[in-house]
Amino acid sequence: MIMMKNFNKTFLAIAVTLASSQAIAAGFQLNSQSATGIGRAFAGDAVIADNASVLSRNPAAMALFDKQQLSMGLTYADVQVQVNDVTHGSGANYGSVDDAAEAKVIPNFYYVNPVNDKFAYGVAMFSNFGTGTDTTELSNNIIGGRLPAPIDLLGKTEVTTINFNLSASYRFNEHFSVGAGVDMIYGQGTLTRGGAVPSPITGAPIDVDLVDVDADGIAFGGIVGAVYEINADNRFGISYRLSPEFKASGDVTMAGVDFDEIIIPLPDIFQVAGFHQLTDKFAIHYTAQLTTWADFDEITVSDPVDAQLKHYAWDDSWLFSIGGTYTLNNSWTLRAGYMHDQGVVGEISSISIPDSDRNWYTAGVTYNLSQNTSLDFGLGFVRGEDVSLIESSGLVGDIHATTRSDATYYSMQYNYQF
Asked: Where in the sequence is the signal peptide annotated (predicted)?
């Protein structure tokens, strides 16, 4: 019975961490698609179209280009996750992990080609998810020689996903444009759960491996969007990303049973954005985005049998951001932004997936090297909240902990206009 409980809990953790587009990694949705976006907290990114990275948000905005555009860059995501005072219900303290997350370098690439004044196409590569947590250092703590750590809740989780996108746009008239695209999403993840438990005979520590996972998969989704231009200085954008049912397969060994495939329903993403050039030098922009995490209703497994693993619903999550852009001179453009990003975890919290509402404070610059070439730099500070949680371990019962998730984003991007 204990092993079956371990099986359910650890497999649920695998399934959650392998979720790709707009998923949560250690409490973070990796908004990292461009340096310009980070610099303005992604406010208005579905409609500004100041470089080709708009492909990650709204394919219809390609209609705003009259020349070929290339953008490519790197984002360094320094994610800081603290797991403090992991405590048994009896009061026994297993300790804390001050730095449970791993930093990631996230590349991106975008190319937009306006074929004529009506039609444009583009290709893109970017990541919506890529981070990890590691609480392995607590897994071997045995209290009083008899009470093992909750090794079914502790361990290493690491995930990487990449989106490959092909999109097209069509301009109906000077005011209205539409676009659509196809996403191919590759996801790869590893997860371990295990540690030391006392021998029931001698009491000596015994190493136990509960789970050892290396799984990957490919899924297909899509995005549609529209842009409405009131005039050259005021426009609105809207997009809807249809997320796939993601399937991951590979080596999954747990409790002596091998399974091959996990099936995870992913949420859709809807966003609206606006851009207003108020003066020759200053513009404001904003975004509201809904991610339908309530669609995350159940996780199933297959091979050797098909079964519901867990009924598990998160909350829908809203994101709101506002930003400003100031053109200092012909060489320099300045930007800043603020974002409030709601957490998705509802009544069920997790030590391995800390989550809370987050506030983003960002700034960025563009430096024009020439008429056709520019460099973008973005800096973002993401601050979460302290969350007190209780998670049930199949080995030792209820576990209490306090978690916090923060991050700092450093991003650089090269843009070229042909």
From this structure: 1-25
Owning domain of residue 59: 2-417
3-state DSSP of the chain: CHHHHHHHHHHHHHHHHHCCCCCCECCECCCCCCHHHHHCCCCCCCCCCCCHHHHHCCHHHHHHCCCCEEEEEEEEEEEEEEEEEEEECCCCEEEEECCCEECEEEEEEEEEEECCCCEEEEEEEECCCEEEEECHHHCCCCECCCECCCCCCCEEEEEEEEEEEEEEEEECCCCEEEEEEEEEEEEEEEEEEEEEEECCCCCCEEEEEEEEEEEEEEEEEEEEEEEEEEECCEEEEEEEEECCEEEEEEEEEECCEEEEEEEEECCCEEEEEEEEECCCCEEEEEEEEEECHHHCCEEEEECCCCEEEEECCCCCEEEEEEEEEEECCCCEEEEEEEEEECCCCCCCCCCCCCCCCEEEEEEEEEEECCCCEEEEEEEEEEECCCEEEEEEECCCEEEEEEEEEEEEEEEEEEEEEC
Judge whether 69 and 418 are in contact, CB under 8 Å.
yes
223: CATH: 2.40.160.60
Pairing of strands 104-114, 69-88: antiparallel
- The answer, yes or no, to whether the previous bond of 114 is cis (omega within 30 of 0) is no
| Number of separate domains in the chain | 1
Single-letter code of the amino acid located at 111: Y
Task: Give the length of the chain.
Answer: 418
C-alpha 408/C-alpha 406 separation (Å) is: 7
* Tens of pLDDT, residue by residue, the chain (418 residues): 333 344 343 333 433 333 333 333 333 456 788 999 999 999 999 999 999 999 999 999 999 999 999 999 999 988 888 888 888 888 888 888 888 887 888 899 999 999 999 999 999 999 876 667 788 888 888 887 788 888 888 888 777 778 899 999 999 999 999 999 999 988 777 778 888 888 777 778 888 887 777 778 888 999 999 999 999 999 999 999 988 877 878 777 766 777 777 777 777 889 999 999 999 999 999 999 998 877 776 666 677 766 555 555 677 889 999 999 999 999 999 999 999 988 777 666 667 667 778 899 999 999 999 999 999 999 999 998 888 888 878 788 888 888 888 889 999 999 999 9
